[in-house]
Specification:
Layout (H helix, E strand, L loop, with lengths): L1 H43 L5 E9 L3 E8 L5 E7 L8 E4 L6 H11 L3 E12 L2 E10 L4 E7 L5 E5 L3
Antiparallel strand pairs: 1-2, 2-3, 3-4, 5-6, 6-7, 7-8
Length: about 160
């Protein structure tokens, strides 16, 4: 009887793990598909020659931010509108603006309660390109801070979620 309890315990733990992996994978699949489609569109439109990273950004509109090198070997971000992947997308050169590390430092300077950065994404909003810095505070509350790419100034923030 004791062996059966061990077996069933191990079996149900393994089953739960497999189910979590399958559910997580199927939940991420649409994002992965949209990102790959945006990467192909950017390469087909010859806006970039190579892609190093891509991720979805949901703001006023939903974009896929594709980062890579253009024909002049400059690091460039392309903002592909999810509703119209084949349209020529907006681009910015990632030189001269606020970097990802600087955006994190600005957010940390203005909120000393920052505990852990969850993610940093470059996106496109009405005033221009912004860094979305998402982090938790010491009280385990989630905050979103939007920092303008060009100037490094705060554009908007959503706190204590």
């Amino acid at each position: 009887m004791k062996n059966w309890l061990k077996f069933l315990s191990i079996f149900f733990v393994c089953l739960a793990f497999v189910l979590v992996v399958i559910i997580g994978w199927s939940a991420y699949a649409p994002f992965h598909s949209v990102e790959k489609q945006a990467e192909r569109a950017v390469l087909a439109n010859k806006q970039l020659t190579s892609v190093s990273d891509s991720y979805t950004y949901h703001g006023h509109s939903s974009y896929v931010t594709v980062i890579g090198e253009d024909k002049n070997k400059q690091k460039t971000a392309v903002f592909v509108l999810q509703d119209d992947m084949n349209q020529k997308a907006s681009t910015i050169h990632l030189k001269g603006g606020t970097t990802e590390k600087e955006a994190i430092a600005i957010a940390k300077k203005n909120d000393p309660n920052m505990k852990r950065v969850l993610h940093v994404k470059l996106g496109l909003e009405k005033p221009g390109a912004v860094w979305e810095v998402t982090y938790t505070t010491k009280n385990d509350l989630v905050n979103y801070v939007y920092i303008m790419y060009d100037t490094g100034e705060w554009w908007k923030r959503i706190t204590n979620i």
